[in-house]
Specification:
Helix content is 29%, strand content 27%. The protein is an alpha/beta fold. β9 (132-133), α5 (140-145) and β10 (149-150) form a beta-alpha-beta unit. Belongs to the peptidase C56 family.
């Protein structure tokens, strides 16, 4: 049985938050598929901080190919999932098929990793209620309004949820997600 992970995203995903998990999980021997509203080349963005600005800036980044549309995904074929941040989460949460995919990971207890602004995609469905998680610090009020406890740390684990603030937390975030995956994946 192959070890498989699904990355759930769309256009305007933060470049480092899709590319690093993709490559790092492939290094560990996982087959990684990227799912998006449509099977196409996705436009990523680069968020960075510039002197004199109160918040991050956004520039166009690399393109990355989506392997599947949301409608084509069979969630049961995956051992875990990652939802990267950027601006994609606010869009993908309303796309047909997104909720069905995420419901699978929530109800089965398979590892679900999300970072930065990805919590926005989970909030409308009540997935965060009663949970602890982290996100980009500006989302603290949103996290709390969704009924979750915001923890300002590089990684927060609550059951099968593994969350991180942003790409700066990748080493610890992906390491913890891989630990969760290894606990839930049947031996090959």
């Amino acid at each position: 049985m192959s070890k498989r992970v699904l990355i759930i995203t769309g256009d305007m995903v933060e470049a480092q938050e899709v590319m690093y998990p993709l490559h790092r999980l492939q290094e560990e021997g996982y087959i990684v598929d990227i799912a998006a509203p449509e099977k196409k080349a996705l436009q990523t963005v680069v968020h960075d901080f510039e002197p004199g600005f109160d918040t991050f800036t956004e520039k166009l980044g690399y393109r990355v190919q989506a392997d599947l549309s949301f409608e084509e995904v069979e969630p049961k074929n995956y051992d875990g999932a990652v939802i990267p941040g950027g601006r994609a989460p606010e869009h993908i949460r309303g796309v047909s098929g997104f909720k069905k995919i995420v419901d699978h990971f929530v109800t089965t207890g398979k590892p679900l990793a999300f970072e930065c602004h990805a919590a926005l995609a989970l909030m409308p469905f009540g997935y965060l209620k009663g949970r602890q998680c982290t996100a980009f610090p500006d989302l603290k009020l949103d996290i709390e309004a969704a009924g979750a406890s915001f923890i300002d740390d590089s990684v927060v684990i609550d059951g099968n949820f593994v969350s991180a603030r942003a790409w700066i937390d990748h080493p610890r975030f992906i390491k913890e997600f891989i630990k969760q995956l290894e606990q839930h994946v049947a031996p090959i």
